[in-house]
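During the second year of the project, the team shifted from modelling isolated chains to modelling whole assemblies. The rationale, set out in the original proposal, was that interfaces cannot be judged from single-chain predictions alone. As a representative example for this report, we include one of the complexes processed in the last quarter. Its constituent sequences, exactly as entered into the pipeline, are reproduced here:
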Amino acid sequence: MVRITTYFILILSISMLAGCVKEQENLFDETAAVRLNNAIESIDSTLTNASNGWVMQYFATSESPGYTMLIKFSSNGEAVVAAKNQLVKGKYTEAKSIFDVIGDNGPVLTFNTFNDVLHIFSNPENPSGTGLEGDYEFVVNNYSDSLIQLKGKKRGTEIEMQRLSESNSWSDYFDELDKMDNQILGAGSLYFITGRDTFIVLNGSTHVFEFQNTTTNETTQIPFIITKKGLKFYAPYITSGNKNVQTFSLSDDGKLYADNDKNTYFAGPKIGSYFVNSQSTYAFDTTRMSDHFKMPIRELHQQMKEHYNGKRNVDFIALSYKTGFGNSFYLATTPTVTTANFKIELTLDPNNDVITIAREKGIYDSNGELFYTNINAIEDIWSQLDGSYKLISGLSKKEVKFIDLNDESRYFVVMKR
Amino acid sequence: MDKFKYYVLIIVFIVLISSGCNKNDELTDSIFVDAQEQNLDSPTYNFDVWLNDNFREPYNLSFKYRMEDVGSDLYYNLVPASLEKSKQLAQLVKYLWFDVYAEMVDEEFLKKYGPRIIHLIGSPAYSPNSGTMVLGTAEGGIKVTLYSCNNLDYKNPDQMNEFYFKTMHHEFAHILHQTKSYPKDFEQISAGSYSPMGWQYITAADAAKMGFVSPYSASQAREDFVEIIANYLVKSDESWNKTLEMAGEEGSAIINSKLEICSKWLKEKWDIDIVLMRNEIIKRQQNIDDDFFNKEL
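Output from the structure prediction step:
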């Protein structure tokens, strides 16, 4: 009996030894809850330390267009959010509310009182019942002094915030984005070229591109956001060369290149053929032209003012198209609104993308005849337009620079109205 | 010798047990931050102090105007209430609900039976599938959630009553009947007419003719019971009589019989005179204008 008991105690003792022999080392110095609280404090100070705020690149869902918001977080718990988009009627708008960093699914940035700018994306009232389905609470995935990566708590949408430099004024920032938007979008369709693949790109103005494969006719929706350098897709696009491209920058040659792959880019239609077929009105930018044009235009303003005693001042002059008349040099007056057309012929050299302007002397509409008789400067401008021009334009074709082929110092810039 | 070994083994065993696992982790810092700590620099400092003095201290009630998603129904797409509307609604809740009970019953009544949490939500709670909109909820007598707070228009008493105060009295009546049940007679009056899934397709006029003061009353008996109380408390004579006219002879008789049961139950179980309380609420509603609100909050 003693022997059995002895063996029993011996085995039990050994098993007890094995049970306690190794204390598991802690992977972390502190508990999960303490680490979460520390992370919350650290994120809060990272947010508030950016004295000029953050640029938030917001997508309500992975299928929605991207919107830029600027956000300044104050240490007293107040957040100022600014935007300029069609959801705030196209005007630069700022709104204040409260923010907090809370422990939820990890550290979560929440805007927990209503903000007129930010909550537009999550308000279910428009359209009724669902709204734009965006988040206003964001799990903080990664953070540093220059970049914070967020994930929408409900939708899981990936959203980034980049620290805004001190020198940037907020309203100027949005003006720069508008300018970039104007330079990229507006020509109707674009082309997306990646290696040997070419896509026709539609619906740019919605900020969700439709890529049409020119070979297979398959379509793909690509949400994007305008940036100061160009644009950024919501998610990386895998090219036929197996590269992930996401951010694009506008180049001086008018194309928009992937930042990490120069063989992947957006290009617009050739400007020469686009311009002769556009039938749009392109007004002269009188601040960007050589003296060859500037002087007679200045004279035109003076003569109109004197002859009509301020009742028919020059509103703008343009290259235009009038149905039944054709292409014209165009004059619009203010405050009495009058328009006049003086005929020009546009000839395209498609091989070199060169346009020749030739005035058709003596051909004008009835208002044109009246002005031509009374204002000498019209003849000067009209005749000055004659010439062959090399055209330079960005993707949007909203702005076109005409440079005389025979004399590069002769140039003018026109803007689409 | 065997006996000696035996004792040695027992001693080793005891030593092992007593020394085993003797290393305890030291207690770490508390994970909780003091919830009542208020930041003097905060843009909500004055409002937070007011809420503390008017709700938390006297009624042990947390008035949550900063939306807590985790405390809301995740089925819905919701947004927070604006700070401006939260301030207005907090003052209106105090004046048109808590102060009324304090005056008409006693100060202890809402301390004892009132909710512990009022949670404001900025948007309505839409159910796109059914086409309905939730105006408020009361959960187990503890928490009242008020939706659509960003649409508060204090210059429009009908809208205010329909969206907020009717909802408050509706939800509070739930708390009361969950504490002391209402008479079973009530459920017999419209038994067979309730439509839990189809009430949203009934018009206000048809509901009235069936003896219901609102389409939602027709969903189930307990909703019918609290709708009678809530509608009677907030509607003016003109508005209440309009409902009775719409109901016709048969419908108005049903509504009046329901009101009689509600009035009797409130008096007997809670010592509340519904007519006097209604007069007090209507009188107070007339005092709501631009000057009513504390601009310092």
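The longest strand of chain B covers residues 117-120. The first helix of chain B runs from residue 2 to 19.
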